[in-house]
Design a protein that fits this description.
There is one protein chain. The chain is built from twelve helices and no strands. It is mainly alpha-helical. The chain folds into two domains: 109 residues, no CATH class; 184 residues, no CATH class. It is globular and about 85 Å long. It is found in: Cell membrane.
Length: 382
Amino acid sequence: MSANLEDAAVTPLVRKTAAWAWRLLVILVAVLAVLWVVDKLEVIVVPVFLALMVSALLVPPVDWLDRHGVPRGGAVAVVLLGGFATLGGVLTFVITQFVVGLPDLTEQVTRSIDKSRRWLIEGPAHLRSEQITNAGNAAIQALHNNQAKLTSGALSTAATLTELLTAAVLVLFTLIFFLYGGRNIWQYVTKIFPAGVRDRVLEAGRAGYGSLIGYVRATFLVALTDAAGVGTGLAIMGVPLALPLASLVFLGAFIPLIGALISGLVAVVVALLAKGIVYALITLGLLVVINQIEAHLLQPLVMGRAVSIHPLAVVLAISTGGVLAGIVGALLAVPTVAVLNNAIQVLLAADPSAEAEKQTEDAYADRAVGRASPDHPDDDPD
């Protein structure tokens, strides 16, 4: 009786706030616990996530071969071997272009440094050659003074090669099983849930993976378009290493909104060193134009409604992922949000099957922009 009187003495607003507060605290503790486990198992979790993203890009051709009579194992082998051959050829071509273009870049940078030195001596600054020489000697001395730190950094980098090799093997191993039997794996995972919600969780997984397929495919097309635009512009201007710089923009474009622009700043620096301030400004303008085309045309057209995420959510996701896990976190943040967005919508829907079908129709309405037909459930590897 006294407990009821005490509860009655507290205003309903305070009681509701307290009820929400302790529930939110429990959710926060659970999220922190999950992040702690992920941090401890980063060497395993990150390769699995990367394999999941790559599988979203490769599973459609595997399913296409499977539907046309090729055994599933053979389809996986064909797609992987074709992917490795394409990747190896592109890398070989890029590295060759880098080796060929590096001497020209070195020569142009040397000329730029000589011009800058003459301008500092003969221009408005009227510096003496001794001052410039002393500045150069100071920089060299600073490198010598920090040699121990640089050496230890190189050693630590060498120590991570084993981890990188292990991660690469794990990515490949996991990717093979995702492509071959991803649906069976997901169906087995759903058995840990109560029978009453198992179908709902299964539909949520399908919807989430469908959005991941749309995201990865669309991001690949956007990145390819960005790289082609930057590479063409640099080649027309005669900037050295145009193809390697375009490849860097392609990789950076997998981080939405800011990745291509940040990686493109390297092209601006190269243009500044090799061709001067005018070409650097033109390159910067080219990057801004391409970024605007991506944000206002390519992203809405290619991504579609199924993977549409508010720009604020994208920025917050990238920032949070970068703080928690660096470049890898920024890379995985947006696809994770896209998957959770569609999966949670299906989990909370009154009719999960209808909601999942709607998500599929939104994601794959038009194959011409990288979206698959909803009539092919094989596009979902769960």
